[in-house]
Amino acid sequence: MMTPVLWALILIKANAVLGAHLLNCPKSEIKFEKVIGLPPINATQLLFQLKPNETGRPITLDCLAMCQSNEACQSFVLYYDNLQCYWFDYDATNVTKDTRLVVDNDAAWFVKSCLKIDCKKSWVFEAVRGATLLGNDTKILGTYNISRKECEQKCLEERSFQCRSIKFKISFNYLTQQHNESVGQCTLSSADRHLNPMAYRVSTNDDYYLEYQCGDSTKRAFDNEGYCSYEEYEDVVQLHGDILFEKISKENCQKQCDSYKGFNCRGFSVISNPQLCMLHSEDTKLRGPRVLAPHKGGFYFEKARCLNITVSCSQTYMTVRYQPEIDFRGKLYMQGNSENPACFVLGQGKYTMVTLKLQLLTSQCGIVKADSPTNRTLMSGTLILQYNPLIQTQSDRIMRVGCIFGNESKVLLGTGINITSNLPNKGSPLINTTSNATVAPVVEMKVVDLKSQDETSDTQIGQELQLIIELKESAGTYDIWAGHLIAMTEKGDESIFLLDDRGCPTNLNIFPALQKISTNTGKKLMTTFQAFKFANSPVVRFSVIVQFCPKECMPIQCENNIQSYGRKRREIESHLLETVNGTQRIQAQTQQNFLKPINPRTTQSSVVNQMPLEYIMVVRDSSTRPDRLILGNKDGKVLVAGYNYTTNEVCMDFSLVIGLIVTWIIVQLIFIIACLALVRRYKNHYKEEYSRASLEELHKNFGLGFSNLENRRVRWADNGEDLL
Length: 724
Known about the structure:
The chain is built from six helices and 47 strands. The chain is mainly beta.
């Protein structure tokens, strides 16, 4: 007979092996959840690795199968760089306070969950730590008292709308560690990062973005819903592969990606020599552009959602119409002509039609003309859909649009992203503070790569970065606030406010609030954001005003319950403004006044001085290009494979070129036959005229016919005049 102590030991062991949430879960309901954005972890129990004689194929499905068959395996980590996976007998996706800022971007975690859903996908939810979907809060469940697993089940059980994603904010307190981080606020959404790309951005490590991967019997599965084309990345491949196919063409590889059911295929990579095809469950919007590796002759194709864009042409105009599904306040323009009023139009909100009318008879707006020998003319150009009116982000889309004249069909659309820049840059602070009377604190502003934590001044659109304002002053005499953060072009002709005068973010889609961290050497104001750029310049200048206060600066409360370490509203009245190139800047007080209040009205806030800082960086593009121009829908005939903008050459489909040549030859033969028939007819006419002229000459010589009338006259009796 077993004692209570023995029963307790058995129960503890069972919890360690299966996990409390899996104890009473039927085997059919044990599903996987994929988690990315977690810190590195020490792993010793090898789950799977390739044999020495095997090639470097993906092992995602192998690791899932091994963990599924092992009841003791509650979770495992997959390393894409060395193609190994390690298992754990507990949920390894729980992180601690000490490693919250470190992220392993070359690994993915998979954890077992008990979910009541009939789903054949390899994992039901895809969770991203440190990311969020702004707005789109369809249903908020409770306050901070629900677990992530319970939140996922609520999404599966929702019937009033299609639950596409979850926004989960943990209530774990990093400073006091009084709560379990698996408990937090659950928000269900009918949108996701694909439907509303501008709303998806990096956030604090308290936030999780969870995306539902399946459909059910009552709802249409949305793994491929709304996708009609691929963005093309040249001379690169995606590093995080999930399944490999050998000796298949690019077209068959695309079919595999479109039809694969094991996971949601977001893109595929192809290599011509040897002929390989690799499918990916992740895309560049999830991990950033650094997930792509250079590979000569390789191509990466990423799924792109359909856009409700139509093109119509008259003899003098091409009209582009965009019907937005979201609150569109951005810009629709032709590439390279973002500031030409004739070549762009601004959005006016949700469901408001955006119409861009382009003249075809002029050479403006980058419209390329290509003529064929069969009297057909192709007029086409590159259109950019920019979701923000001022800056470009990785969510923006590029399309080729055009029309063929002399043919009943119209040509429409390709998709992709192609935002180019090639200017050099060096980043540096604008001002270093010194004071003859008092030792002033040293303040630096820099931008670092989120993954490597190395300072960077040359980056790519969509790359995850951190802006850091650091006060190097270990004595704790001063504290800092920051506000009036502006991003502008190199010459300052375009600018956008990121933080207002209070230090509150103006657009959370682009730039979040600053958070304060204390270290042994000073204090830091920092935030995480994704790299962006302006349409007409690759150079982005960050300009910010930093203020000092003794001992400690208290945070302010912004909208949406956001705390930021900026300036209080009553201090804004003391700022001295000047206008430089259309951009407002705040003049810094002199260093001699460093320890003096700005004016009597600000003494209550204990702010002693302010300082402007500036940082310059270059934001580049990935090697992408628009999709091919096709006739009709996505399954139509390819008409144009690409452009050479240097020589203004249009690369057309081979079969189309052959058809045009054959048509041209037939037209030439018809022309030659018509000329021969015309010459023959002229000869016959010449012979007839020659015979008639000869006959008249003969009649004249013998006084016959009408020729003898030339010398005959008539005399009238009344006037004696001679008339013919």
